[in-house]
């Protein structure tokens, strides 16, 4: 059994902790990532303690220089973790005592690890949100600029994964970019709710030393102060919101990945992934697999698991801090790491993707213009329902004759409706077809160009927000 003498809370204990319980209880292997923010929070708290007369100027100087030294040890990789370090907060305080002696024991006055850990996590996540936002904006920019460079490429648009209508390749790229801008906006909202100071809430009841929380807020650059100490120490809404933001982003990424996996098959042949984002088969020499996209797709499941896992942990917890909350950090760190690599790989995939215009054009077939044929009749005054039926008859007639719909003669067409004339030949042009969709949001060149401009503007604005 380990001795309790060196534990922060050892005073009331006579028996030791079971070694397996000690391992289960420890968060040290992963919460080391909070070392820097933990020190930052402690420095601010020490200054506030000096302001409220708990620390002398001399005490404060000693504590700050001790914390500075510990920070430097962490950054050099020289900090030695010992077995009794239960978590990052205990480890830093233990080391502070080794460096500056008993005055270190004054630092935790009126503070609890309950308000300390959630302050650390908020500081850490606030910074991570900015890093992730930069990756996300870069990714969206890559999609938008690729769309701008390839507006003339036309290929099939699918619904139910069946050929539907011709669209611009750019329109497809932008459809994904638009979804990612919602993710980016959502991340900004999440960051706003992360940016609230819980320090000064203590364990449950608040702070009894008249600590200046407004001073702490300014020191740690938070936008506001939490309203209620019981809520502040236990709420992890910001964690769930972050994990949900991440899950939805991953769903969008995996949808795009799935589209591109399908488009990269020999059967479609629309795109080829660069070697940098593919791998080969150990058995079949000809294989080039889209592993980057498959990994993006699979990580969506992983991230969603973290999100639902966290909600399961929170469900049914009684008020205020419970040790269950220690689980939040692994979920957050794992999701931050996953998003960071996935976004950078996705950016790489899009910027190096090769497209095969000829195959895209070849995949367009005249039957995809059946809607246009109906519209031709609508423009001549026929109600759409009748026009739809007439065009359907033309599809059927071509099928029974074993020819493409655009091979039907004008006489064939006239047998379906007298409104058909020789000008029907104009319908059989894919470039003309896409150019009809000039309404905002459509696939015409003018509309796609307007979308690109709006997205560029939105990216400029969102960059300024982070
Ligand atoms: N390691 C703990 C966590 O991550 C810190 C808070 C511990 N608080 C407590 N009352 N035991 O949540």
Automatic annotation (TrEMBL):
The keyword Ribonucleoprotein does not apply. The lineage of its organism: Eukaryota, Metazoa, Chordata, Craniata, Vertebrata. One of its GO terms (molecular function) is identical protein binding. It comes from the Eukaryota. It holds the Pfam family ASL_C2. This is Argininosuccinate lyase. Keywords: Eye lens protein. SUPFAM superfamilies: L-aspartase-like. The keyword Isomerase does not apply.
